[in-house]
Write a structure and sequence with these properties.
The complex is a heterodimer of chains A (263) and B (357). By secondary structure, chain A is an alpha/beta fold. Chain A is built from nine helices and twelve strands. The chains are: A alpha/beta (263), B mainly alpha (357).
Chain lengths: 263, 357
C-alpha cells in the first residue's frame, strides 16, 4: 500500500533530517512508527502527505507516485491527524467532523444527508457524540484530538496517518483509540501512527518501523523488533522487555526506589 | 424495518445538523434589509410623503410608467439622489462586511478587516493618485485596486514568520502599511492643486454625497457577483480557516484559494473605497456580530454579515444626511458608533479573540 524508497529530506542545505529511508506497508496493516524525539518522524509523515517537498526518493500509494497526485487526490486517499491543532474560530464539533467529508463533496453546496450521516457515524465510533454541539476551540487538548480522529474517520481514507494520536488522552481513551484503529484497519484502511509508547506498538501494531537519528533502524513485527537490543540502541540502557500472558510488555530498567512511605 | 431505521437516521441528521434556525435568521435579515431600503427612501431633509416616494419609484420601475407626469423636484430628489445613494450604501456595506469576513477567514484571525490591514489606505492612495495625476492612471477604480492589493499582500508578507501569521504581527504590519500609505496620501495632498485637494479631503472622510446612478451601476453588480462567487466557495473558506496543513489534508489547496479569496475581497474593498472613501470598522464589526448570531460557519456567516453590513450602512448614511442640516461624513459616524462596540469587544471577549491564532 504505502511504499517509501530511498527517501532523503533536508530543511536547510547540508542539514539532512531524513537519510535514505525505505520501507513498505501492506494494505490493512496497523504500523507503528517508533523513535526518539526529533528523529524525523513527523517530517517523514509530512513528506508522505506532500506537505514537504523531498529531494530524493519516491513515495507511492498503491503503486502511484504521490508526486503525480493533486492536493485533492491526495485528500481522497490519505487523511492526517496532527499532533496538535491550533483552533481558529469556534466551529462546533459536528461541523469540524463534517469537514472531513470535503474531499468527497462535488459541486456547489453539495453536503448531502449521506455526508452528514457519515459524520455522525464517525462521531459515534470515536465516542464524542456528547460533545457534538460544543465549540471546538473550547475543548481540552485530548478532546480536540478525538475530534480530529473522528474527522479523519469521516474522511474514509485508504491510508491514515496519525501523529501521536494518544499523546493527550487519558489511559482509557488511549486504549479505546488503539482498539478503534485496529477496528478501522479491519475494513482495509492502512494505518500508520507514530507514538512514544513502546507498549502501544507492542500490543496494537502489526508492524513497526523504528527510526533513530535520521535513518531507519529496523522494521518488522513488534514482538521481534522491540527487543531489548534494539530498544537499547535508541534509548541507551533504559528498557526491559518481559512477557505477561500472551503479550509482551516494555518497562523501565531502573525505577529509583526512594518513594516515601505514606502512613 | 430497514426503511424505518433509515428514516430514524435521517431524523437524527436533522437533529444534529439543524439549519432551519439559521435559514430563518437569514430570511429575517433579508426582509429587514429590503424594508430599511424603503424606509430610508422616505426619510430626508426635504420632506416628501411616503406615498409620493413610492409612487415615483414604482413609476420608474414600471417600463410603461411615464416619468414626465411626476413632480420634477420630488423625482430628482427621490430617484436621482436618494435611491442611488441608498443602493450605493447597500453595495458598500456588503462589500466591506464581506471583505472583512473573508480576510478574517483566510488569515485565521477574527481581528483583521480591510481598514486594519491597510487595504483601505492603499486603495485610498491609489485613488488619490488617480485624482492628482489623472493622465497617469486611466481609472480610479483600477488604481485603487492595484494599491489595495499591494497593501494587503505587503501586510501579509511582513507578518509571516516561519509559516505562521500571528495576530499581533498581522495587526502591526497592517498599521505600518496603512501609515505608509497615509503618508503618501499626505504627500499627494501637499502637491495637489486646490481643486484636487478639496476632492481628496472630502472623499477621504468617507461619504455618499456624490452617489450617482453610474456609481451604483458599476459597483452594485460587481459586489453582488463577487458575493455569490464567495458564497459558492464558503465551505472551502471554512476549511482554509482551520490552517494551511489542515486544508491540504482535506484537499483544499491553501495557496490557490487564499489568493482567490483575498483578490476578490480586495477588489470589492477597492471599488468601494474609490467610490465613497475610507469607512472604518464595518468589516470588523459585521462579521463578528454575524458570527455571534449564527456561528462561524461561513456558509451562513457570510450572507448574514453582508446583509448586516448593508443595513448598518443604510442606517449610518441615513443618520449622516438627516441628523443635522449639513451633512456629516459617514466615515465619522461609523467610527463613532463603532468605537463603543470595539471597546465592548476587547473588554468582554478580548481573551477569546486575542487568545487564539
Amino acid at each position: 500500500m504505502l511504499s517509501v524508497q530511498n527517501l532523503f529530506f533536508e530543511y536547510t542545505k547540508s542539514n539532512p533530517v531524513i537519510e535514505d529511508i525505505s520501507f513498505n506497508i501492506k494494505q490493512g496493516e496497523v504500523c507503528g512508527l517508533f523513535g526518539p524525539n526529533g528523529c524525523g518522524k513527523t517530517t517523514l509523515f509530512k513528506c508522505c502527505l506532500k506537505f514537504l517537498k523531498y529531494e530524493k526518493g519516491t513515495i507511492t500509494f498503491n503503486n502511484e507516485d504521490i508526486k503525480d497526485k493533486s492536493i485533492h487526490e491526495m485528500a481522497k486517499s490519505a487523511a492526517y491527524v496532527p499532533q496538535e491543532h491550533k483552533p481558529s474560530f469556534p466551529y462546533l464539533v459536528r461541523d469540524v467532523v463534517l469537514m472531513g467529508r470535503t474531499p468527497h463533496l462535488g459541486g456547489v453546496f453539495s453536503i448531502s444527508k449521506k455526508d452528514k450521516i457519515k459524520a455522525i457515524d464517525a462521531m459515534k465510533l470515536v465516542g464524542i457524540e456528547n460533545i457534538a454541539d460544543k465549540p471546538y476551540n473550547q475543548l481540552s487538548g485530548g478532546q480536540r484530538q478525538l475530534v480530529i480522529i473522528a474527522r479523519a474517520v469521516a474522511q474514509e481514507p485508504n491510508i491514515l496517518f496519525l501523529d501521536e494520536p494518544t499523546s493527550a488522552l487519558d489511559f482509557s481513551n488511549q486504549i479505546r483509540i488503539w482498539n478503534l484503529l485496529r477496528k478501522i484497519s479491519g475494513n482495509g484502511t492502512t494505518i500508520i501512527a507514530c507514538t512514544h509508547d513502546p507498549n502501544h506498538v507492542m500490543w496494537f501494531c502489526d508492524r513497526v518501523v523504528v527510526m533513530g537519528n535520521k535513518r531507519l533502524i529496523s522494521i518488522g513485527s513488534p514482538e521481534v523488533i522491540l527487543s531489548e537490543k534494539i530498544l537499547d540502541e535508541i534509548y541507551t540502557d533504559t528498557c526491559k522487555v518481559s512477557s505477561i500472558g500472551k503479550n509482551k510488555i516494555v518497562y523501565p530498567k531502573k525505577i529509583t526506589n526512594n518513594k516515601r512511605e505514606i502512613s | 424495518m430497514e426503511k424505518n431505521k433509515k428514516k430514524s437516521k435521517y431524523n437524527e441528521t436533522e437533529k444534529h445538523f439543524d439549519t432551519k434556525r439559521k435559514k430563518t435568521i437569514l430570511l429575517i435579515l433579508f426582509l429587514i434589509l429590503i424594508s430599511s431600503i424603503f424606509i430610508a427612501l422616505t426619510i430626508g431633509v426635504y420632506k416628501i410623503s411616503a406615498n409620493d416616494v413610492y409612487n415615483i419609484v414604482i413609476t420608474h420601475l414600471n417600463p410603461w410608467g411615464d416619468t414626465n407626469d411626476l413632480y420634477r423636484v420630488y423625482d430628482v430628489i427621490v430617484w436621482n439622489i436618494r435611491f442611488p445613494r441608498i443602493l450605493l450604501s447597500v453595495a458598500v456595506g456588503i462589500a466591506l462586511a464581506l471583505a472583512g469576513g473573508i480576510y478574517q477567514g483566510c488569515f485565521r484571525n477574527p481581528l483583521v478587516e480591510p481598514y486594519i490591514l491597510g487595504v483601505e489606505s492603499g486603495a485610498a492612495f491609489g485613488a488619490a493618485l488617480a485624482i492628482v495625476i489623472p493622465s497617469f492612471f486611466f481609472s480610479l477604480q483600477i488604481s485603487a485596486f492595484i494599491f489595495g492589493s499591494i497593501a494587503v499582500f505587503g501586510a501579509y508578507m511582513l507578518a509571516r514568520v516561519r509559516g505562521e501569521t500571528p495576530t499581533i504581527m498581522l495587526i502591526l504590519s497592517g498599521v505600518i502599511i496603512g501609515s505608509v500609505f497615509a503618508a503618501f496620501v499626505s504627500i499627494l495632498k501637499y502637491i495637489a492643486t486646490d481643486a484636487a485637494l478639496r476632492e481628496i479631503v472630502f472623499w477621504m472622510m468617507g461619504g455618499f454625497y456624490y452617489a450617482s446612478w453610474s456609481d451604483v451601476l458599476l459597483i452594485l453588480p460587481i459586489v453582488i457577483i463577487c458575493f455569490f462567487i464567495l458564497w459558492i466557495f464558503s465551505w472551502k473558506l471554512n476549511i482554509l480557516s482551520m490552517g494551511d496543513e489542515e486544508s491540504k489534508t482535506l484537499g483544499v489547496n491553501p495557496e490557490l484559494y487564499k489568493v482567490i479569496f483575498v483578490i476578490i475581497a480586495t477588489l470589492i474593498t477597492a471599488i468601494s473605497v474609490s467610490a465613497v472613501g475610507i469607512i472604518a470598522w464595518v468589516g470588523l464589526m459585521m462579521p463578528h456580530a454575524s458570527r455571534m448570531l449564527l456561528g462561524p460557519d461561513h456558509r451562513f456567516m457570510l450572507p448574514a454579515a453582508a446583509m448586516m453590513g448593508a443595513i448598518y450602512m443604510i442606517l449610518c448614511d441615513t443618520l449622516a444626511r438627516t441628523l443635522t442640516s449639513a451633512e456629516i461624513p459617514v466615515g465619522i459616524l461609523t467610527s463613532i458608533i463603532g468605537a463603543p462596540y470595539l471597546i465592548y469587544l476587547i473588554r468582554n471577549k478580548g481573551k477569546l479573540i486575542f487568545g487564539v491564532g
